[in-house]
């Protein structure tokens, strides 16, 4: 991986390559579903238009057409509020939401009641880190994370520091992995939460989540992992990995943008303080009307990921 990244960087620094990319970009087109492109077979060789090669799948993925097909009915005819339980439109949407919840749970080995729908992994991380810390603040006030976490986790920890919490930011080794003995030494009787991502979004390193979860379980510390880059790409089982909270993103697994999920363990129970006020949806952890089309898309993406995972 490092060799590939280095090779790509050298290519991009090459002046001739930059010029070629610039020319390709100027010729690139965005094919619109509303403006069918001229058939390539009908064009002369010098008329063929080029598109850039997409190499940014760790940032976002294109939506799978099958996911769009699953979502479409809930963007048109099935538009009921899933929280309206007095009429058929609401029942229809609620059934679709619960089916999607079961699909997400099935991918990660969870119970459907342990899946909370959110707007994405950033919100899931905020709810997990801030919510757990604030709920247990009268008993414990120490959080452990690593220096290479996603910015939303690091900023959530800094927010907690401003409220009087103590946060330990563990360094990683030269290979990007956290040193387990150092993590265990950092745990104190005041430690309430440890947050370490499963797969890093920039360097791709996979942390020993199973071992981290075991250490946290032995010390009665809740373990949260940002699994946005892992779910749907590698096998993830929240029970085998001793995970108490896990963040999931829809658009990382060929699903829609604007939707994600947070796994919250029920046994032993993990308690959260809600960080958003409102109607008390999602077991009171995330108020706001659940967007039926988006969660249906997330569920479909999770189902496809499980079926097609290598």
UniProtKB/TrEMBL annotation:
Q: Which residues form a coiled coil?
A: none
Q: Which terms in the GO cellular component ontology are assigned?
A: cytosol; mitochondrion; nucleus
Keyword Transferase found = yes
Domain named Aminotransferase class V: residues:
54-307
One MF annotation (Gene Ontology) recorded for this entry: cysteine desulfurase activity
Give yes or no: UniProt keyword Iron: yes
What are the UniProt keywords, alphabetically?
A: Iron, Iron-sulfur, Metal-binding, Pyridoxal phosphate, Transferase
Pfam families recorded for this chain? Aminotran_5
Q: What is its EC number?
A: 2.8.1.7
Q: Which family does it belong to?
A: Belongs to the class-V pyridoxal-phosphate-dependent aminotransferase family. NifS/IscS subfamily.
Protein name, per record: cysteine desulfurase
Task: Cite the source lineage.
Answer: Eukaryota, Metazoa, Ecdysozoa, Arthropoda, Crustacea
Q: Which gene encodes it?
A: NFS1_1
């Amino acid at each position: 991986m490092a060799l590939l990244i280095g090779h790509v960087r050298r290519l991009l620094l090459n002046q001739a390559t930059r010029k070629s990319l610039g020319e390709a970009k100027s010729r690139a087109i965005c094919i619109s579903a509303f403006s069918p492109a001229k058939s390539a077979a009908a064009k002369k060789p010098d008329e063929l238009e080029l598109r850039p090669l997409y190499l940014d799948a760790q940032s976002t993925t294109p939506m799978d057409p099958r996911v769009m097909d699953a979502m479409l009915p809930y963007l048109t005819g099935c538009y009921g509020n899933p929280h309206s339980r007095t009429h058929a439109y609401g029942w229809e949407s609620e059934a679709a939401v619960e089916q999607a919840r079961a699909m997400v749970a099935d991918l990660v080995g969870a119970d459907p009641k342990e899946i909370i729908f959110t707007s994405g992994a950033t919100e899931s991380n905020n709810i997990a880190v801030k919510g757990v810390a604030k709920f247990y603040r009268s008993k414990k006030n120490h959080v452990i994370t690593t220096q290479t976490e996603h910015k939303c986790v690091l900023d959530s920890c800094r927010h907690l520091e401003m409220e009087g919490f103590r946060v330990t930011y563990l360094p990683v080794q030269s290979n990007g992995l956290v040193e387990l003995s150092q993590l265990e030494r950092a745990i104190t009787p005041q430690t309430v939460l440890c947050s370490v991502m499963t797969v890093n979004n920039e360097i791709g390193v996979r942390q020993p989540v199973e071992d981290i979860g075991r250490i946290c379980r032995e010390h009665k510390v809740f373990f949260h992992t940002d699994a946005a880059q892992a779910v749907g790409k590698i096998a993830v089982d929240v029970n085998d990995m001793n995970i108490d909270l896990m963040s999931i993103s829809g658009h990382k697994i060929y699903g829609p943008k604007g939707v994600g999920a947070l796994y919250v363990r029920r046994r032993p129970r993990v308690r959260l303080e809600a960080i958003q006020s409102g109607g008390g949806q999602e077991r009171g952890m995330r108020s706001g009307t659940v967007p039926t089309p988006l969660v249906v898309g997330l569920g479909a993406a999770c189902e496809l990921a499980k079926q097609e995972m290598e």
